[in-house]
Every structure is written in structure tokens, then in C-alpha cells.
Amino acid sequence: MPIRIGFWNCNLGVNPYWEERPLTAKFAALKQAVAQFSLRCNPGSLSIFTAPEYAFAAKGKGRPLPAEPLPVALVSQYFTAMEKLSATYPRILIVPGSLVVETDKKVQNRVIGYFGGESEIFVGKQHGVGEVGVPVPVGGYTFQPGNGGQVVTLNGVSIFTQICRDATQGTTPDPTVDIHLTIGQGVGVEAIVKKRPNVALIVADAFNYAVVDENGPIDSDATDETLGVKTYCYTVG
Q1: pLDDT in tens, the chain (237 residues)
Q2: How would you class 12 by CB atoms within 10 Å of its CB: exposed for 0-12, middle for 13-18, buried for 19 or more?
Q3: In this structure, which of 167, 216, 225, 231 has its CB flanked by the most CB atoms within 10 Å?
Q4: Domain span including residue 176
């Protein structure tokens, strides 16, 4: 059965002042985008909706870190809202980019994927690139490496998820995996393809977004726009 893919291109560079929007505004935009995407999906089949790295992190502008962590008080609010949205669209795997979290000045970049109202994907970036400062960490912060990738099987489809640099320097996906999902910010598509020649690839990167199968790149077949953010739609399989 074909799988519908939606890439929600919210991004610090593409959408002006995205990093300054409060969490509630970002979530309102996400909610509308998922609702619009759902109209293009087969209700009984798996679909995937995803977004770039740092979609739910602030960025720069005099803040102590290049990618500002989500305030602790809002983390539980974020999880609850995402699970509720996922329950509304139970056949859509929602992977809303990454968020940055911090505990005792240890910073981790995380991707969480929601399906059927629950978190099914939990990935922590292993190879940090600028989360705590470039080239030298600032303010006593340190990057905390995560698990580097995770495989889940949903509706009989196996999906391997990684974050940005981990896809080019980290674990190579098992060739039997159906889909390799990379959440990135400036990651090279060609470098990932070389590591997974027989796996369908989704690169959710604001500047290098792509969907590729064994025959090469797949063109977007539809584009939607909600609250100034575009969603590019594809079909795999």
C-alpha cells in the first residue's frame, strides 16, 4: 500500500521569526498543517508527517545557546499536546522535527514520533553539531549524546529514524528496513543515500528536503500552506 509523506517546512531560516513564536503558536500551526495533510491520506493506511530539526527550539539572537532548550515548564505540555494530536489522526505517524532539552546544563537534541496517541519513536542525537556553541561550548553547557537512532515497525512498515549528522556518521540502517527517516538541518542527502542504497529515504531538512526510493528522487505531488508554512506531499511505494 502506498505511503503518504508530508514534510512541514517550518524553519528558522525559511519562515521569518519562527524561533520567536511561542510554543502555543507553533503547535497551532502544526495542528492545522496535520489536519490539512490528513485530507490527502488514505484513512486506513500508514502516513508520515514530519518536520525539520529544531522545529520546536528557539535559535540564537543573544540567547546563551544556539538552539535554545524548551523550558522545563513546557515540556510536559508539549508531550500532552502531541499525544492528543496523534490520537486524533491515529494512522499518521507525526514526527514534528526535534526539540532541545536541558538538565543541569547538559543539552540533548531529541526527536519523538507519535502514532495512535502514543510516543513510538524516541531518538537522541549522538553526534552534536552546534547545540551548545560553535566551535567552543558557551556558558558551561555540554552536549549529551543520545542513542543515535531507533527502528520501529508500524502497520508492518519498519522505520529507522536518525537526526542530521548521525545519518552520515552514525549507524548505517539495516538493509531490510523499509524507510530511513532523517530529521536534519543542513544534512547532505547524497551522503545519506550512499549509506542506504536499497532503503526508501525521507530527509526532513528545511534546505535539503527530499524523498528518495530505489529509483531515485521522488517529486512532490502536492503543496499545502497553513499559517505561512508550506507542507510538501509525496507518495512512496
Answers
A1: 799 999 999 876 667 677 778 888 889 999 999 999 999 999 889 999 999 998 987 655 556 666 778 777 788 889 999 999 999 999 999 999 999 988 888 999 999 999 999 999 999 999 998 788 776 777 788 999 999 999 999 999 999 999 999 998 877 767 789 999 999 988 878 878 777 666 799 999 988 899 998 888 999 999 999 888 999 999 998
A2: buried
A3: 167
A4: 3-236
Euclidean distance between CA atoms 18 and 185, whole angstroms: 15
State which amino acid sits at residue 193.
V
Grid cell, residue 17, equals 521569526
How far apart (Å, rounded) are the C-alpha atoms in residues 111 and 78?
A: 13
CB pairs under 8 A, 24+ apart, for 67-74?
67/100, 67/107, 67/109, 67/130, 67/131, 68/19, 68/100, 69/100, 69/101, 69/102, 69/107, 70/23, 70/99, 70/100, 70/101, 74/23
**How many domains is the chain built from?**
1
Question: For residues 6 and 230, what is the distance between their CA atoms, to the nearest angstrom?
Answer: 10
* Residue with grid cell 493506511, as numbered in its chain: 45
Integer distance in angstroms from the first to the last C-alpha of the chain? 7
Are the beta carbons of 163 and 170 closer than 8 angstroms?
no
pTM of the model: 0.93
